[in-house]
Design a protein that fits this description.
The chain has helices at 16-32, 34-55, 66-97, 100-104, 111-141, 149-173, 177-194, 206-212, 216-229, 235-255, and strands at 59-61, 64-65. The chain is mainly alpha-helical. A two-stranded antiparallel ribbon has the order 1-2. The longest helix is centred in the N-terminal third of the chain and has 32 residues, at 66-97.
Length: 259
């Protein structure tokens, strides 16, 4: 029997089924990480439950209460920040540490598939947190929907992308999963502290507050609050989120290593 001198092997790129299977696997990984699943949903919800009873009775602007003007924008931004800055980087650092990304780099399944799948699962988790917080606020405390709904949705998507850009920087520089969590926690609390998470920007020194509302956490809270109560969204806040997306993505692309 003669054996061909050369053998051609057809390489097929992963199709939709492969992408779906990877997303399902990522979702199962996130679901098994109890702390990573509960904290982004439970911590903002706890703040909502403790603040809403008193905030819902304080009308502050355009007939909207402090619940809609302050508490809900803060809670929804916290959901995005915990998922984007803490959770997602830890998973990516784990995959790099264990060599999963390196192994995928020599197969038709590009390591980029893992990034895409993790982003998809993170978005689904963020939407779950959004839905849970809004359901409690609307049904239990009588909160009103945003006056400018389309603007609020646009701001939320922009804020989500900004938090993920920050998270990608964390994933790029963190050598281990534990260090990714540590760096993510420091980044989350630093951005939150100067962004009004612990009592609002009014309680901060003026220079700190000015910087805080230009960083992604503070910019997201202020832009969401403005769209919720029907006030104009300051262009500076949208620009801050856009700059974070561009700078964060470029920095992560330069620093990220697959192994």
């Amino acid at each position: 029997m003669s054996i061909p001198a050369t053998t051609t092997i057809a390489v097929h790129r992963p199709g939709p089924r492969a992408w779906l299977n990877l997303v399902v696997c990522e979702a199962k990984m996130v679901a098994r990480d109890t702390a990573g699943l509960v904290v982004p949903l439970g911590l903002p919800l706890l703040i909502l439950l403790t603040s809403a009873p008193s905030a819902g009775d304080q009308v502050v602007v355009n007939g909207f209460s402090a619940l809609e003007a302050y508490v809900l924008p803060l809670v929804l931004t916290m959901v995005l920040a915990t998922i984007g800055v803490i959770n997602m980087p830890s998973f990516l650092a784990y995959y790099r540490r264990t060599g999963i990304l390196r192994r995928l780099s020599v197969t038709p399944a590009s390591p980029a598939m893992v990034l895409v799948a993790q982003v998809v699962v993170s978005v689904l988790q963020a939407l779950l947190g959004l839905g849970l917080a809004l359901a409690v606020a609307f049904l239990a405390f009588g909160a009103r929907p945003p006056a400018h709904l389309a603007t609020a949705v646009g701001v939320y998507v922009l804020a989500m992308a900004a938090m993920y850009a920050v998270g990608m920087i964390v994933a790029a520089v963190a050598p281990t999963p534990n260090s990714a969590v540590a760096i993510g926690l420091v980044g989350f609390f630093a951005l939150g502290a100067v962004g009004g998470m612990f009592g609002g920007l009014a309680g901060l020194p003026e220079p700190v507050a000015a910087v805080g509302e230009r960083l992604p956490f503070g910019a997201a809270v202020r832009a969401l609050a403005a769209s919720w109560v029907g006030a104009p969204v300051e262009p500076a806040h949208l620009i801050s989120l856009g700059v974070t997306i561009v700078v964060g993505s470029m920095t992560a692309a330069l620093l990220f290593r697959w192994d």
